[in-house]
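User: Quick sanity check before I run a bigger batch. Here is a single chain. Can you write out its predicted 3D structure?
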Amino acid sequence: MADDAMSMPLWERLRTRRGGLREEEFARADPYVREALSENKHTGLVMAVRARWIALAVIAVLIPFLNPRWEVLYYEVALIGFALIGWAQLRTGRVALSRPELLLIFCDLALMTFLLVVPNPFRDEVWPTAFQYHLSDFSYFYVLLAAGALAYSWRTIFAFAAWTTCLWLLALIPVALFGAEIPALSAAAAAAFAGHERILEVFDPNDPVVPARIQEVVVFLIVAAILGVNGRLNNQLVFRQAEIARERGNLARHFPPTIVDRMAEQDQPLGAVRSQDVAVMFVDIVGFTRMAERQTPEEVVALLRQFHGRLEVLVFEHQGTLDKFLGDGLMATFGTPEPGPEDAANALRCGRDILADIGEWNRERQAAGAAPIEVSVGLHHGPVVLGDIGSERRLEYAVLGDTVNVAYRLEALTRDLGVGMAVSDALVAAVRGEVGTDGETMLSALDRSGSQSLRGRDEPIEVWTC
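Assistant: Done. Predicted structure follows.
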């Protein structure tokens, strides 16, 4: 079982352990997850900072309305500090652990705690320290929490709630033990609420009312937990979207973008087994083995990457499907996963363009002092079987049948005939049936080579060459 687990791709191994992983682990594991998380993080941060600034603007107008005294300027300046912290979070926020971002979150909470606990130095009246702590509106922490839920991961939300609880309760200790008191106020409250001890507990200016403060943080923790769970559910949606993007990217490696878009809109499965007529193409580098013997492994890989890259573009430009790379060649199909009106013509156009493109590439290579390469192309049209093959653990979309074998043999036949492309009469007939007079124009560049025997077949076939 251990060997099976290690043989799984890194993404699959991470997905089986998703519950205990951090977002940054997924971001490192898969580029689609990294892109999805980065986009989600950036969008969330922008929304959070905008929401913060709007809330701060509302509070800035509300404070002087509720307390029309000069002392409120102290809090107005503090609001500017909160706005700057939000701006800094927007600049430093990113996926994965970010110590500057965590520091800014802590600064947010510390500044809020300081403003709610420490008396305003510009206030004319002198208040007991406990009364300042008691009177302070803990609900302002919910403004920071709500904005943070838009931008931070569920783990950070839990840390946010823990830090808030610690700061608020730690501030309670010096208030309760060392806070300044005005005994006359307690005496006046006792006289005013004589016989109503429960009411006196709430309104005694020198009592911080510890049970009420604990109730505040408990409710805050509950709300933070709910937001954290919701954030985790949202992250799972992001991971699912990343999986869909990865699956779409895998399709884009085989199919042209227009076909990928059409397939993504359909409900029918790609791997449904069926039979249909398609055009099959094989392309190969002639004499690649001898060429590779004279080059370093790095040069060989670089050559193949350039070769495959050029052919991939041409196949997709002609609405073809890249079935697979075959070492120094490739197999492509035209008319999969769905048939089109000009599959055979697209295959023939693609074959001609491949020969022309390789000719242009050879001129560039010779100008750079590199040896030219020679390619061979085989084209055939006919019925094939389409569907998924393999085991339950690994499936591969495959194109099977005699048509595939004939196209492969035609590509090999080009060496015997000394041509760049060999085309079956079946494909020529299909081209004529698809595009009419335009087909004749394309076919005028082909020469009839007569009946040719193919290895593995009893009957010869009519072949055209270019």
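Residues 9-249 form one domain.

User: Great, the batch can go ahead then.
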